[in-house]
Amino acid sequence: MNADELDGRVPVTLLTGFLGVGKTTLLNHLIRDPNAGRIAVVMNEFGDAGLDHDLIEESTEETILMQSGCLCCSIRGDLSKTLTSLMARRKRGELSFDRVVIETTGIADPGPIMHTMVVDNLIAPHYRTDGVVTVADAATGPSTLEKQSEAVNQIAMADLVVLSKTDLVTPTELTRFETRIAGINSSAKRIKAQKGQVPLGALFGLSAMRSNVTTDDISDWLGMAKATPDPLAGLSGFAAPDSAPAALPLPTAHAHHDHKIISASIELEHPIPANVFDYWLDSLITIRGPDILRMKGIVHVEGMGWPFVFHGVQHIFDAPVPLTSWSGTDTTSRVVVIARNMSLSLLDASLETLRLQANEPDAQLDGMMVHTTEISI
Ligand SMILES: Nc1nc2c(ncn2[C@@H]2O[C@H](COP(=O)(O)OP(=O)(O)OP(=O)(O)O)[C@@H](O)[C@H]2O)c(=O)[nH]1
């Protein structure tokens, strides 16, 4: 798909996954596929990973190798410079690309990179995050998730999890690993890669943060498509009290836990007052911002003819996108929250606040949800 068919900005895919899981193997298949379109690859070099560069250099002239060392520590300045330079060269006609894939180092936390994509004034007007693709190694993944919090973060932030090395495990082990991944992030889609091969297109168009998004795109993005009966439903403690005020429909949620990670999906059946949603989100970010690994959703606001989609990582939220040409009739708001160190009871209490605020006469009607916001905590 051409970038201009979306919102004019170039889509950027963040390709992440722990050390040695198969990111480069996947990328090499992708860039060698003649139908994959024109892709600019941005990678950083760490340790002896320069081999990646050699492999990719053979396949395309449009490879940018960042010499910055550990991506998670120094990406901000360099990513900005690199993407700005790419865009300048594209405008001058020196480079031609429709999308960018950033391969992170195995130990990188994708959070800072996602923040940079949103808050950097040089990047945000020209690029948009198209999705976070996390490669998870079916063979070593279970033990890595036990030991490495970065690996857990990478799964938590994913829009798509690509399961690699499934040839090295039994079907039972694979099912167990998939269950574990769903426990961290139930909204991410999952596909299997055969030595890096995935169906073309599976990696792209993942984010629903665009104005022409369809209901199916949103379902995929929020993990609703595979909404099979949830064995953990009912454990979340989100049962609505009988005395809840009628002004706000009762939130319902399903949740999964993975040690200290909570992955919850919240549904509000009817449109919600803007100030109420704003208050809830602001409070949650202010109190728990550092622990929010990923939050995304579609929100129907009272008095508005169309919903908004939004997403954020920790305390940084992208500008919400109004779906002005929305034709769906379902007015259910859906929010996915994946957080670390947040108990179900705390999230439940926050939802209670949300519900009660609906009748708060002094609540400020100061606008629609959060815009790109950075709160110092
Ligand atoms: N058996 C098997 N091996 C795989 C598969 N995918 C990748 N590998 C192998 O796993 C090893 C690591 O793959 P890479 O693609 O270099 O992994 P990476 O995530 O880029 O590694 P780093 O950049 O070092 O973090 C290589 O030897 C690959 O050939 C797979 O599906 N099955």
Word description of this protein:
The chain contains ten helices and 14 strands. With 377 residues, the protein is of the alpha/beta class. Strands 3-2-4-1-5-6-7 form a seven-stranded parallel beta sheet, sandwiched between helices. Strands 8, 9, 10, 11, 12, 13 and 14 form a seven-stranded antiparallel beta sheet that branches. The longest helix has 21 residues. The protein starts with 9 loop residues before the first strand and ends in a 20-residue tail after the last helix. The N terminus and C terminus are likely disordered. Guanosine-5'-triphosphate (GTP) binds next to helix 1.
Write the layout of secondary structure elements.
Blueprint: E1 10-17, H1 23-32, E2 39-44, H2 50-57, E3 63-66, H3 71-91, E4 99-103, H4 110-119, E5 127-137, H5 141-147, H6 149-156, E6 160-164, H7 171-184, E7 189-192, H8 215-221, E8 252-258, E9 261-268, H9 274-288, E10 292-299, E11 308-313, E12 316-317, E13 321-322, E14 333-340, H10 344-357
Parallel strand pairs: 1-4, 1-5, 2-3, 2-4, 5-6, 6-7
Antiparallel strand pairs: 8-9, 9-14, 10-11, 10-14, 11-12, 11-13
Helix pairs in contact: 3-4, 5-6, 9-10
The structure holds guanosine-5'-triphosphate.
Guanosine-5'-triphosphate (GTP) binds next to helix 1.
